[in-house]
Protein backbone atom coordinates (compact mmCIF):
# COMPACT_ATOMS: atom_id res chain seq x y z
CA UNK A 1 0.00 0.00 0.00
CA UNK A 2 2.64 2.43 1.09
CA UNK A 3 6.23 1.96 0.01
CA UNK A 4 7.77 3.75 3.02
CA UNK A 5 6.01 1.61 5.58
CA UNK A 6 6.62 -1.51 3.49
CA UNK A 7 10.38 -0.88 3.62
CA UNK A 8 10.23 -0.27 7.35
CA UNK A 9 8.40 -3.55 7.85
CA UNK A 10 11.05 -5.56 6.05
CA UNK A 11 13.84 -3.88 8.01
CA UNK A 12 12.31 -4.61 11.40
CA UNK A 13 9.13 -6.41 12.36
CA UNK A 14 6.74 -4.02 14.09
CA UNK A 15 5.84 -4.13 17.79
CA UNK A 16 2.25 -4.99 16.98
CA UNK A 17 1.18 -6.38 13.64
CA UNK A 18 -2.42 -7.07 12.75
CA UNK A 19 -3.35 -8.75 9.48
CA UNK A 20 -6.81 -9.14 8.01
CA UNK A 21 -8.62 -8.85 11.32
CA UNK A 22 -12.36 -9.49 10.99
CA UNK A 23 -14.93 -9.40 13.77
CA UNK A 24 -18.66 -9.87 13.32
CA UNK A 25 -21.41 -9.43 15.88
CA UNK A 26 -24.31 -11.39 14.42
CA UNK A 27 -24.83 -9.87 10.99
CA UNK A 28 -22.92 -6.69 11.78
CA UNK A 29 -19.35 -6.56 10.52
CA UNK A 30 -17.57 -4.52 13.16
CA UNK A 31 -14.09 -5.03 11.70
CA UNK A 32 -13.53 -5.93 8.07
CA UNK A 33 -10.07 -7.29 7.17
CA UNK A 34 -8.24 -4.60 9.12
CA UNK A 35 -4.47 -4.34 8.70
CA UNK A 36 -2.86 -2.33 11.46
CA UNK A 37 0.73 -1.96 12.62
CA UNK A 38 2.40 -0.20 15.50
CA UNK A 39 6.18 0.18 15.30
CA UNK A 40 8.60 0.50 18.19
CA UNK A 41 8.67 3.96 19.83
CA UNK A 42 5.78 5.17 17.76
CA UNK A 43 2.60 7.01 18.60
CA UNK A 44 -0.26 5.98 16.33
CA UNK A 45 -3.43 8.03 16.26
CA UNK A 46 -6.45 5.78 15.76
CA UNK A 47 -9.19 7.97 14.36
CA UNK A 48 -12.73 7.52 13.22
CA UNK A 49 -16.27 8.60 13.88
CA UNK A 50 -18.44 6.98 16.54
CA UNK A 51 -19.15 3.37 15.62
CA UNK A 52 -16.20 3.16 13.22
CA UNK A 53 -14.78 0.14 15.04
CA UNK A 54 -12.03 1.81 17.11
CA UNK A 55 -13.02 0.29 20.41
CA UNK A 56 -13.82 -3.09 18.86
CA UNK A 57 -10.30 -3.13 17.43
CA UNK A 58 -8.60 -2.42 20.75
CA UNK A 59 -10.90 -4.77 22.64
CA UNK A 60 -9.98 -7.52 20.20
CA UNK A 61 -6.28 -6.77 20.75
CA UNK A 62 -6.81 -6.87 24.53
CA UNK A 63 -8.54 -10.24 24.37
CA UNK A 64 -12.02 -9.03 25.31
CA UNK A 65 -13.43 -10.37 22.02
CA UNK A 66 -11.98 -13.33 20.10
CA UNK A 67 -11.37 -12.41 16.45
CA UNK A 68 -13.32 -14.25 13.73
CA UNK A 69 -10.48 -14.07 11.21
CA UNK A 70 -7.03 -12.62 10.97
CA UNK A 71 -3.79 -12.79 12.86
CA UNK A 72 -2.09 -10.65 15.46
CA UNK A 73 1.62 -10.56 16.32
CA UNK A 74 3.16 -8.79 19.31
CA UNK A 75 6.95 -8.44 19.41
CA UNK A 76 7.17 -10.99 16.64
CA UNK A 77 5.11 -13.62 18.47
CA UNK A 78 1.64 -14.68 17.46
CA UNK A 79 -0.92 -13.68 20.08
CA UNK A 80 -4.52 -14.53 20.88
CA UNK A 81 -5.29 -13.33 24.38
CA UNK A 82 -8.31 -14.77 26.11
CA UNK A 83 -8.58 -11.95 28.66
CA UNK A 84 -7.24 -8.44 29.31
CA UNK A 85 -5.16 -9.92 32.16
CA UNK A 86 -3.22 -12.01 29.64
CA UNK A 87 -2.68 -8.97 27.44
CA UNK A 88 -1.41 -7.01 30.44
CA UNK A 89 0.96 -9.78 31.41
CA UNK A 90 2.38 -9.69 27.86
CA UNK A 91 2.93 -5.91 28.09
CA UNK A 92 -0.13 -4.34 26.48
CA UNK A 93 -1.98 -1.98 28.77
CA UNK A 94 -5.17 -0.05 28.13
CA UNK A 95 -5.98 3.16 29.99
CA UNK A 96 -9.63 4.11 29.84
CA UNK A 97 -11.00 7.54 30.47
CA UNK A 98 -11.69 8.00 34.17
CA UNK A 99 -11.90 4.36 35.17
CA UNK A 100 -8.37 3.44 36.13
CA UNK A 101 -8.04 4.50 39.73
CA UNK A 102 -10.08 3.72 42.82
CA UNK A 103 -11.35 7.01 44.20
CA UNK A 104 -11.61 5.93 47.83
CA UNK A 105 -7.97 4.84 48.12
CA UNK A 106 -4.82 6.91 48.39
CA UNK A 107 -2.34 7.16 45.55
CA UNK A 108 0.23 4.60 46.65
CA UNK A 109 -2.42 2.00 47.46
CA UNK A 110 -3.97 2.60 44.05
CA UNK A 111 -0.64 2.36 42.34
CA UNK A 112 0.03 -1.14 43.63
CA UNK A 113 -3.47 -2.69 43.67
CA UNK A 114 -3.12 -6.32 42.63
CA UNK A 115 0.71 -6.05 42.55
CA UNK A 116 1.50 -5.12 46.14
CA UNK A 117 5.06 -5.27 47.42
CA UNK A 118 5.50 -7.28 50.61
CA UNK A 119 8.39 -7.19 53.04
CA UNK A 120 11.07 -9.68 52.19
CA UNK A 121 12.18 -12.18 54.82
CA UNK A 122 9.08 -11.45 56.86
CA UNK A 123 6.95 -14.27 58.18
CA UNK A 124 3.69 -12.32 58.11
CA UNK A 125 4.20 -10.96 54.60
CA UNK A 126 3.11 -7.46 55.58
CA UNK A 127 2.97 -4.74 52.96
CA UNK A 128 6.22 -2.91 52.37
CA UNK A 129 4.61 0.49 52.75
CA UNK A 130 7.80 2.58 52.70
CA UNK A 131 9.01 0.98 49.45
CA UNK A 132 5.64 1.45 47.80
CA UNK A 133 5.37 5.08 48.93
CA UNK A 134 8.90 5.71 47.70
CA UNK A 135 8.31 4.13 44.28
CA UNK A 136 5.00 5.95 43.91
CA UNK A 137 6.64 9.23 44.84
CA UNK A 138 9.36 8.70 42.23
CA UNK A 139 6.75 7.84 39.65
CA UNK A 140 4.72 10.94 40.44
CA UNK A 141 7.85 13.01 39.68
CA UNK A 142 8.25 11.19 36.42
CA UNK A 143 4.67 11.75 35.28
CA UNK A 144 4.83 15.39 36.39
CA UNK A 145 2.34 15.13 39.24
CA UNK A 146 5.14 15.77 41.72
CA UNK A 147 3.19 18.25 43.82
CA UNK A 148 1.07 15.38 45.08
CA UNK A 149 2.05 13.17 47.99
CA UNK A 150 1.48 9.41 47.65
CA UNK A 151 -0.70 9.55 50.78
CA UNK A 152 -3.30 11.76 49.18
CA UNK A 153 -6.63 10.36 48.13
CA UNK A 154 -7.35 9.96 44.46
CA UNK A 155 -10.68 11.77 44.49
CA UNK A 156 -8.99 15.11 45.18
CA UNK A 157 -6.91 14.85 41.97
CA UNK A 158 -7.82 16.45 38.67
CA UNK A 159 -8.76 14.37 35.65
CA UNK A 160 -5.39 14.98 34.00
CA UNK A 161 -3.47 13.97 37.12
CA UNK A 162 -5.47 10.73 37.35
CA UNK A 163 -4.79 10.06 33.68
CA UNK A 164 -1.07 10.66 34.13
CA UNK A 165 -0.87 8.46 37.21
CA UNK A 166 -2.68 5.62 35.42
CA UNK A 167 -0.25 5.88 32.50
CA UNK A 168 2.70 6.06 34.89
CA UNK A 169 1.53 2.93 36.63
CA UNK A 170 1.26 1.08 33.31
CA UNK A 171 4.84 2.11 32.47
CA UNK A 172 6.12 1.14 35.90
CA UNK A 173 4.74 -2.36 35.51
CA UNK A 174 6.48 -2.81 32.19
CA UNK A 175 3.94 -1.96 29.48
CA UNK A 176 5.47 -1.98 25.97
CA UNK A 177 2.33 -0.85 24.21
CA UNK A 178 -0.09 1.60 25.75
CA UNK A 179 -3.61 1.99 24.42
CA UNK A 180 -5.11 5.32 25.47
CA UNK A 181 -8.85 5.44 24.97
CA UNK A 182 -9.96 9.07 24.57
CA UNK A 183 -7.36 10.31 27.08
CA UNK A 184 -8.18 13.99 26.63
CA UNK A 185 -11.93 14.02 26.12
CA UNK A 186 -12.96 15.08 29.62
CA UNK A 187 -10.01 17.37 30.33
CA UNK A 188 -9.67 21.13 30.40
CA UNK A 189 -7.51 22.86 27.77
CA UNK A 190 -4.54 23.30 30.08
CA UNK A 191 -4.79 19.74 31.40
CA UNK A 192 -5.01 18.42 27.85
CA UNK A 193 -1.77 20.15 26.95
CA UNK A 194 0.00 18.64 29.94
CA UNK A 195 -1.21 15.14 29.14
CA UNK A 196 -0.25 15.53 25.46
CA UNK A 197 3.25 16.70 26.41
CA UNK A 198 3.55 13.71 28.66
CA UNK A 199 2.44 11.33 25.90
CA UNK A 200 5.07 12.82 23.56
CA UNK A 201 7.73 12.12 26.17
CA UNK A 202 6.72 8.44 26.33
CA UNK A 203 8.62 7.62 23.14
CA UNK A 204 11.88 8.26 24.99
CA UNK A 205 10.83 5.58 27.45
CA UNK A 206 10.74 3.00 24.69
CA UNK A 207 6.97 2.72 24.73
CA UNK A 208 4.58 2.75 21.81
CA UNK A 209 1.14 4.29 22.05
CA UNK A 210 -2.18 3.80 20.30
CA UNK A 211 -4.03 7.06 20.85
CA UNK A 212 -7.75 6.68 20.22
CA UNK A 213 -9.69 9.87 19.70
CA UNK A 214 -12.10 11.61 17.41
CA UNK A 215 -10.44 14.95 18.02
CA UNK A 216 -7.75 15.23 15.34
CA UNK A 217 -6.43 18.48 16.81
CA UNK A 218 -5.46 16.72 20.03
CA UNK A 219 -3.61 13.90 18.36
CA UNK A 220 -2.08 15.72 15.38
CA UNK A 221 1.00 17.12 17.13
CA UNK A 222 1.57 13.96 19.12
CA UNK A 223 1.17 11.07 16.69
CA UNK A 224 3.69 9.88 14.10
CA UNK A 225 1.07 8.18 12.02
CA UNK A 226 -2.71 8.24 11.69
CA UNK A 227 -4.92 5.27 10.96
CA UNK A 228 -8.49 6.06 10.05
CA UNK A 229 -11.32 3.58 10.49
CA UNK A 230 -14.76 3.79 8.97
CA UNK A 231 -17.45 1.13 9.30
CA UNK A 232 -14.87 -1.43 10.31
CA UNK A 233 -12.58 -0.76 7.35
CA UNK A 234 -9.14 0.82 7.59
CA UNK A 235 -9.72 3.59 5.03
CA UNK A 236 -6.51 5.49 5.35
CA UNK A 237 -3.03 5.57 6.75
CA UNK A 238 -1.07 8.83 6.79
CA UNK A 239 2.34 9.59 8.22
CA UNK A 240 2.88 12.96 9.79
CA UNK A 241 6.13 13.56 7.90
CA UNK A 242 3.90 13.83 4.83
CA UNK A 243 2.72 17.11 6.35
CA UNK A 244 5.73 18.92 4.82
CA UNK A 245 4.60 17.71 1.38
CA UNK A 246 1.17 19.07 2.12
CA UNK A 247 -0.57 15.69 1.86
CA UNK A 248 -1.25 15.37 5.58
CA UNK A 249 -2.95 17.96 7.76
CA UNK A 250 -5.75 17.95 10.30
CA UNK A 251 -8.08 19.26 7.58
CA UNK A 252 -7.22 16.44 5.19
CA UNK A 253 -7.79 13.83 7.92
CA UNK A 254 -11.10 15.45 8.92
CA UNK A 255 -12.14 15.31 5.28
CA UNK A 256 -11.33 11.58 5.10
CA UNK A 257 -13.33 10.89 8.27
CA UNK A 258 -16.22 12.99 6.98
CA UNK A 259 -16.38 11.38 3.53
CA UNK A 260 -15.53 7.89 4.73
CA UNK A 261 -12.90 7.34 2.04
CA UNK A 262 -9.43 8.49 1.07
CA UNK A 263 -9.09 10.28 -2.25
CA UNK A 264 -6.20 9.66 -4.60
CA UNK B 1 14.59 9.82 51.39
CA UNK B 2 11.40 8.87 53.15
CA UNK B 3 11.89 11.74 55.57
CA UNK B 4 11.86 14.22 52.71
CA UNK B 5 8.36 13.18 51.81
CA UNK B 6 7.10 13.48 55.33
CA UNK B 7 6.25 17.21 55.51
CA UNK B 8 4.32 17.09 52.24
CA UNK B 9 2.01 14.36 53.47
CA UNK B 10 1.38 15.28 57.08
CA UNK B 11 -1.61 17.65 56.76
CA UNK B 12 -3.59 15.16 54.72
CA UNK B 13 -2.61 12.20 56.86
CA UNK B 14 -3.70 14.21 59.87
CA UNK B 15 -7.05 14.95 58.34
CA UNK B 16 -7.69 11.26 57.76
CA UNK B 17 -7.06 10.45 61.40
CA UNK B 18 -9.28 13.33 62.42
CA UNK B 19 -12.08 11.76 60.47
CA UNK B 20 -13.18 8.72 62.40
CA UNK B 21 -11.22 7.53 65.39
CA UNK B 22 -10.81 10.86 67.14
CA UNK B 23 -14.52 11.63 67.13
CA UNK B 24 -15.35 8.27 68.69
CA UNK B 25 -12.61 8.46 71.32
CA UNK B 26 -13.81 11.92 72.35
CA UNK B 27 -17.39 10.69 72.62
CA UNK B 28 -16.25 7.67 74.65
CA UNK B 29 -14.41 9.89 77.12
CA UNK B 30 -17.22 12.43 77.20
CA UNK B 31 -19.86 9.87 78.12
CA UNK B 32 -17.53 8.18 80.60
CA UNK B 33 -17.01 11.43 82.46
CA UNK B 34 -20.68 12.37 82.16
CA UNK B 35 -22.00 9.08 83.55
CA UNK B 36 -19.34 8.94 86.27
CA UNK B 37 -20.51 12.37 87.35
CA UNK B 38 -24.29 11.95 87.19
CA UNK B 39 -24.65 8.26 88.07
CA UNK B 40 -23.24 7.03 91.36
CA UNK B 41 -23.20 3.33 90.45
CA UNK B 42 -21.44 3.78 87.10
CA UNK B 43 -17.82 4.29 88.10
CA UNK B 44 -17.02 0.93 89.64
CA UNK B 45 -14.93 -2.07 88.66
CA UNK B 46 -18.02 -4.28 88.31
CA UNK B 47 -19.68 -1.86 85.87
CA UNK B 48 -16.50 -1.44 83.86
CA UNK B 49 -16.27 -5.22 83.84
CA UNK B 50 -19.81 -5.47 82.42
CA UNK B 51 -19.04 -2.83 79.77
CA UNK B 52 -15.90 -4.68 78.75
CA UNK B 53 -17.71 -8.04 78.46
CA UNK B 54 -20.75 -6.92 76.47
CA UNK B 55 -18.68 -4.40 74.52
CA UNK B 56 -16.30 -7.19 73.47
CA UNK B 57 -19.18 -9.42 72.37
CA UNK B 58 -20.62 -6.64 70.23
CA UNK B 59 -17.16 -5.54 69.10
CA UNK B 60 -16.13 -8.97 67.80
CA UNK B 61 -19.28 -9.06 65.66
CA UNK B 62 -18.76 -5.48 64.52
CA UNK B 63 -15.16 -6.21 63.39
CA UNK B 64 -16.41 -8.70 60.82
CA UNK B 65 -19.28 -6.44 59.77
CA UNK B 66 -16.82 -3.59 59.24
CA UNK B 67 -14.59 -5.72 57.06
CA UNK B 68 -17.59 -6.83 55.01
CA UNK B 69 -18.96 -3.29 54.63
CA UNK B 70 -15.55 -2.07 53.42
CA UNK B 71 -15.58 -4.84 50.81
CA UNK B 72 -18.90 -3.44 49.57
CA UNK B 73 -21.38 -5.92 51.08
CA UNK B 74 -23.45 -6.07 54.25
CA UNK B 75 -24.52 -8.78 56.68
CA UNK B 76 -27.80 -8.58 58.60
CA UNK B 77 -27.63 -12.20 59.76
CA UNK B 78 -24.80 -11.81 62.29
CA UNK B 79 -27.05 -11.70 65.37
CA UNK B 80 -28.91 -14.81 64.21
CA UNK B 81 -25.62 -16.59 63.52
CA UNK B 82 -24.46 -15.44 66.97
CA UNK B 83 -27.40 -17.06 68.74
CA UNK B 84 -27.51 -20.13 66.48
CA UNK B 85 -23.86 -20.86 67.22
CA UNK B 86 -24.91 -20.81 70.92
CA UNK B 87 -27.27 -23.60 70.02
CA UNK B 88 -24.67 -25.54 68.02
CA UNK B 89 -22.22 -25.47 70.91
CA UNK B 90 -24.91 -26.43 73.39
CA UNK B 91 -26.37 -29.30 71.39
CA UNK B 92 -22.93 -30.68 70.49
CA UNK B 93 -21.90 -30.74 74.13
CA UNK B 94 -25.22 -32.43 75.02
CA UNK B 95 -24.31 -35.16 72.54
CA UNK B 96 -21.19 -35.73 74.57
CA UNK B 97 -18.69 -33.90 72.40
CA UNK B 98 -16.09 -32.15 74.61
CA UNK B 99 -16.82 -28.47 75.01
CA UNK B 100 -13.61 -27.44 73.24
CA UNK B 101 -14.66 -29.31 70.08
CA UNK B 102 -18.24 -28.09 70.43
CA UNK B 103 -16.86 -24.58 70.55
CA UNK B 104 -14.98 -25.08 67.30
CA UNK B 105 -18.03 -26.71 65.71
CA UNK B 106 -19.91 -23.51 66.59
CA UNK B 107 -17.28 -21.48 64.72
CA UNK B 108 -17.39 -23.99 61.84
CA UNK B 109 -21.14 -23.41 61.65
CA UNK B 110 -20.40 -19.68 61.35
CA UNK B 111 -17.96 -20.24 58.48
CA UNK B 112 -20.61 -22.34 56.72
CA UNK B 113 -23.31 -19.71 57.27
CA UNK B 114 -20.96 -17.07 55.87
CA UNK B 115 -20.29 -19.24 52.84
CA UNK B 116 -24.05 -19.53 52.21
CA UNK B 117 -24.44 -15.74 52.48
CA UNK B 118 -21.58 -15.20 50.07
CA UNK B 119 -22.62 -17.95 47.70
CA UNK B 120 -26.15 -16.63 47.19
CA UNK B 121 -25.11 -12.98 47.11
CA UNK B 122 -22.17 -13.39 44.73
CA UNK B 123 -23.10 -16.36 42.54
CA UNK B 124 -26.68 -15.25 41.90
CA UNK B 125 -25.84 -11.54 42.10
CA UNK B 126 -28.52 -10.85 44.71
CA UNK B 127 -27.89 -7.81 46.94
CA UNK B 128 -26.34 -9.06 50.17
CA UNK B 129 -28.89 -6.99 52.08
CA UNK B 130 -31.64 -9.31 50.79
CA UNK B 131 -29.71 -12.57 51.16
CA UNK B 132 -28.62 -11.87 54.72
CA UNK B 133 -32.06 -10.56 55.65
CA UNK B 134 -33.36 -13.96 54.54
CA UNK B 135 -30.79 -15.85 56.60
CA UNK B 136 -31.36 -13.57 59.58
CA UNK B 137 -35.02 -14.64 59.64
CA UNK B 138 -34.19 -18.24 58.73
CA UNK B 139 -31.64 -19.05 61.47
CA UNK B 140 -33.68 -17.31 64.14
CA UNK B 141 -36.85 -19.17 63.12
CA UNK B 142 -35.12 -22.57 62.95
CA UNK B 143 -33.76 -21.94 66.43
CA UNK B 144 -37.17 -20.92 67.76
CA UNK B 145 -38.60 -24.14 66.33
CA UNK B 146 -35.86 -26.37 67.76
CA UNK B 147 -35.99 -24.86 71.26
CA UNK B 148 -39.75 -24.14 71.36
CA UNK B 149 -38.66 -20.61 72.15
CA UNK B 150 -37.57 -21.52 75.65
CA UNK B 151 -34.19 -21.04 77.31
CA UNK B 152 -32.00 -24.12 77.66
CA UNK B 153 -29.25 -24.54 80.22
CA UNK B 154 -25.83 -26.01 79.76
CA UNK B 155 -25.61 -28.90 82.21
CA UNK B 156 -22.10 -30.19 81.69
CA UNK B 157 -19.20 -29.53 83.99
CA UNK B 158 -17.37 -26.22 83.81
CA UNK B 159 -13.96 -27.16 82.56
CA UNK B 160 -10.78 -25.09 82.44
CA UNK B 161 -11.79 -24.10 78.93
CA UNK B 162 -14.56 -21.95 80.47
CA UNK B 163 -12.01 -19.94 82.38
CA UNK B 164 -9.85 -19.68 79.29
CA UNK B 165 -12.67 -18.18 77.20
CA UNK B 166 -14.83 -16.41 79.76
CA UNK B 167 -12.66 -15.96 82.84
CA UNK B 168 -11.23 -12.82 84.40
CA UNK B 169 -7.86 -11.27 85.03
CA UNK B 170 -8.59 -8.88 87.88
CA UNK B 171 -11.62 -6.99 86.62
CA UNK B 172 -10.54 -7.39 83.00
CA UNK B 173 -12.60 -10.15 81.37
CA UNK B 174 -10.83 -12.59 79.07
CA UNK B 175 -13.28 -11.72 76.31
CA UNK B 176 -11.77 -8.26 76.27
CA UNK B 177 -8.31 -9.74 75.74
CA UNK B 178 -9.65 -11.87 72.88
CA UNK B 179 -11.31 -8.84 71.44
CA UNK B 180 -8.17 -6.70 71.59
CA UNK B 181 -6.14 -9.45 69.90
CA UNK B 182 -8.73 -9.80 67.12
CA UNK B 183 -9.03 -6.05 66.72
CA UNK B 184 -5.26 -5.65 66.27
CA UNK B 185 -5.17 -8.66 63.96
CA UNK B 186 -7.89 -7.34 61.67
CA UNK B 187 -6.53 -3.83 61.73
CA UNK B 188 -3.20 -5.21 60.51
CA UNK B 189 -4.92 -7.37 57.91
CA UNK B 190 -6.87 -4.41 56.57
CA UNK B 191 -4.06 -1.87 56.52
CA UNK B 192 -0.88 -3.88 56.15
CA UNK B 193 -1.57 -6.89 53.94
CA UNK B 194 -2.28 -7.50 50.27
CA UNK B 195 -5.66 -8.90 51.18
CA UNK B 196 -6.58 -5.70 53.04
CA UNK B 197 -5.66 -3.67 49.98
CA UNK B 198 -7.87 -5.93 47.87
CA UNK B 199 -10.79 -5.46 50.30
CA UNK B 200 -10.51 -1.67 49.99
CA UNK B 201 -10.12 -1.85 46.21
CA UNK B 202 -13.09 -4.20 45.81
CA UNK B 203 -15.34 -2.01 47.93
CA UNK B 204 -14.08 1.20 46.34
CA UNK B 205 -14.69 0.26 42.72
CA UNK B 206 -15.29 -3.35 41.83
CA UNK B 207 -14.80 -2.97 38.06
CA UNK B 208 -11.47 -1.21 38.43
CA UNK B 209 -10.32 -3.68 41.07
CA UNK B 210 -11.17 -6.57 38.75
CA UNK B 211 -9.42 -4.88 35.83
CA UNK B 212 -6.29 -4.52 37.98
CA UNK B 213 -6.26 -8.25 38.62
CA UNK B 214 -7.97 -8.51 42.02
CA UNK B 215 -10.06 -11.63 42.50
CA UNK B 216 -13.09 -9.75 43.79
CA UNK B 217 -15.25 -12.87 44.14
CA UNK B 218 -12.77 -14.56 46.44
CA UNK B 219 -12.11 -11.35 48.37
CA UNK B 220 -15.80 -10.81 49.10
CA UNK B 221 -16.36 -14.50 49.88
CA UNK B 222 -13.57 -14.51 52.48
CA UNK B 223 -15.08 -11.36 54.02
CA UNK B 224 -18.51 -12.99 54.24
CA UNK B 225 -17.03 -16.09 55.90
CA UNK B 226 -14.85 -14.07 58.28
CA UNK B 227 -17.82 -11.94 59.29
CA UNK B 228 -20.02 -14.93 60.15
CA UNK B 229 -17.14 -16.81 61.78
CA UNK B 230 -16.50 -13.87 64.12
CA UNK B 231 -20.22 -13.66 64.95
CA UNK B 232 -20.20 -17.40 65.71
CA UNK B 233 -17.05 -17.04 67.84
CA UNK B 234 -18.72 -14.27 69.80
CA UNK B 235 -21.85 -16.41 70.17
CA UNK B 236 -19.95 -19.48 71.29
CA UNK B 237 -18.04 -17.49 73.88
CA UNK B 238 -21.34 -15.97 75.03
CA UNK B 239 -22.65 -19.47 75.75
CA UNK B 240 -19.50 -20.38 77.61
CA UNK B 241 -19.85 -17.20 79.68
CA UNK B 242 -23.56 -17.43 80.45
CA UNK B 243 -24.03 -21.25 80.28
CA UNK B 244 -27.52 -20.90 78.95
CA UNK B 245 -29.17 -20.41 75.62
CA UNK B 246 -32.00 -17.94 75.15
CA UNK B 247 -33.34 -18.00 71.58
CA UNK B 248 -34.30 -14.33 71.69
CA UNK B 249 -30.94 -13.10 72.94
CA UNK B 250 -29.06 -10.60 70.73
CA UNK B 251 -32.18 -9.52 68.87
CA UNK B 252 -31.30 -6.38 66.97
CA UNK B 253 -27.60 -6.82 67.57
CA UNK B 254 -26.91 -6.83 63.80
CA UNK B 255 -28.08 -3.23 63.64
CA UNK B 256 -25.99 -2.34 66.68
CA UNK B 257 -22.96 -3.83 64.94
CA UNK B 258 -23.67 -1.85 61.78
CA UNK B 259 -24.20 1.28 63.89
CA UNK B 260 -20.85 0.68 65.60
CA UNK B 261 -19.16 0.42 62.20
CA UNK B 262 -20.82 3.52 60.79
CA UNK B 263 -20.31 5.70 63.88
CA UNK B 264 -16.69 4.50 63.90
CA UNK B 265 -16.13 5.94 60.42
CA UNK B 266 -16.96 3.14 58.01
CA UNK B 267 -18.92 4.25 54.95
CA UNK B 268 -21.87 2.04 54.03
CA UNK B 269 -21.14 2.28 50.30
CA UNK B 270 -17.81 0.52 50.83
CA UNK B 271 -14.14 1.20 50.28
CA UNK B 272 -13.47 3.26 53.40
CA UNK B 273 -13.52 2.17 57.01
CA UNK B 274 -11.69 1.86 60.27
CA UNK B 275 -11.32 -1.25 62.40
CA UNK B 276 -10.07 0.82 65.33
CA UNK B 277 -13.03 3.22 65.01
CA UNK B 278 -15.47 0.31 65.09
CA UNK B 279 -13.70 -1.27 68.06
CA UNK B 280 -13.88 1.87 70.16
CA UNK B 281 -17.44 2.50 69.11
CA UNK B 282 -18.63 -0.90 70.31
CA UNK B 283 -17.54 0.14 73.81
CA UNK B 284 -19.04 3.59 73.36
CA UNK B 285 -22.47 2.05 72.68
CA UNK B 286 -22.27 -0.38 75.60
CA UNK B 287 -20.95 2.33 77.91
CA UNK B 288 -24.00 4.41 77.08
CA UNK B 289 -26.29 1.41 77.66
CA UNK B 290 -24.79 0.65 81.08
CA UNK B 291 -24.68 4.33 81.94
CA UNK B 292 -28.37 4.75 81.22
CA UNK B 293 -29.23 1.67 83.27
CA UNK B 294 -27.21 2.80 86.30
CA UNK B 295 -28.62 6.31 86.12
CA UNK B 296 -32.07 4.82 86.43
CA UNK B 297 -33.49 5.69 83.02
CA UNK B 298 -35.54 2.88 81.53
CA UNK B 299 -33.22 0.83 79.32
CA UNK B 300 -35.66 1.19 76.44
CA UNK B 301 -34.30 4.69 76.02
CA UNK B 302 -30.89 3.26 75.12
CA UNK B 303 -31.86 3.06 71.46
CA UNK B 304 -32.91 6.71 71.51
CA UNK B 305 -29.34 7.62 72.36
CA UNK B 306 -27.95 5.16 69.81
CA UNK B 307 -30.06 6.84 67.16
CA UNK B 308 -28.90 10.31 68.18
CA UNK B 309 -25.26 9.19 68.33
CA UNK B 310 -25.56 7.65 64.89
CA UNK B 311 -26.89 10.90 63.47
CA UNK B 312 -24.29 13.11 65.16
CA UNK B 313 -21.35 10.88 64.25
CA UNK B 314 -22.47 10.48 60.67
CA UNK B 315 -22.91 14.22 60.23
CA UNK B 316 -19.46 14.88 61.72
CA UNK B 317 -17.82 12.13 59.67
CA UNK B 318 -19.48 13.23 56.45
CA UNK B 319 -18.48 16.84 56.95
CA UNK B 320 -14.88 15.88 57.66
CA UNK B 321 -14.75 13.50 54.71
CA UNK B 322 -16.18 16.09 52.35
CA UNK B 323 -13.67 18.62 53.60
CA UNK B 324 -10.65 16.42 53.05
CA UNK B 325 -11.89 15.31 49.65
CA UNK B 326 -12.45 18.84 48.36
CA UNK B 327 -9.10 20.31 49.34
List keywords for this structure.
heterodimer, A: alpha/beta, Rossmann fold, six-stranded mixed β-sheet, four-stranded antiparallel β-sheet, 32% helix, 23% strand, B: 327 residues, ABC transporter involved in vitamin B12 uptake, BtuC, two-stranded antiparallel ribbon, 13 helices, 77% helix
Task: Describe the protein.
- The complex is a heterodimer of chains A (264) and B (327).
- Chain A has 264 residues and is α/β, with parallel strands linked by helices.
- Chain A has two domains: 3-91 and 176-259, P-loop containing nucleotide triphosphate hydrolases (Rossmann fold, 3-Layer(aba) Sandwich), CATH 3.40.50.300; 103-166, no CATH class.
- Chain A has helices at 3-11, 54-61, 84-90, 107-111, 129-142, 159-172, 189-201, 216-219, 250-259, and strands at residues 16-25, 28-38, 43-47, 69-74, 77-78, 92-95, 177-181, 208-213, 225-230, 233-239.
- Chain A has a six-stranded mixed beta sheet, sandwiched between helices. In chain A, strands 2-1-4-5 form a four-stranded antiparallel beta sheet, covered by helices on one side.
- In chain A, helix 6 (159-172) runs parallel beside helix 7.
- Chain A is globular, with a radius of gyration of 19 Å.
- By secondary structure, chain B is an all-alpha fold.
- Chain B has one domain: ABC transporter involved in vitamin B12 uptake, BtuC (Orthogonal Bundle), CATH 1.10.3470.
- Chain B has a two-stranded antiparallel ribbon with strand order 1-4. Chain B has a two-stranded antiparallel ribbon with strand order 2-3.
- In chain B, a hairpin with a 2-residue loop joins strand 2 (168-169) and strand 3.
- In chain B, helix 1 runs parallel beside helix 12 (275-295).
- The radius of gyration of chain B is 20 Å and the shape is globular.
- Chain B starts with a helix and ends with a helix.
- The relative contact order of chain B is 0.20.
- The model of chain B is unreliable at 1-10 (pLDDT under 50).
- The chains are: A alpha/beta (264), B mainly alpha (327).
- At the A-B interface, helix 3 and helix 5 of A face helix 1, helix 8, helix 9 and helix 13 of B.
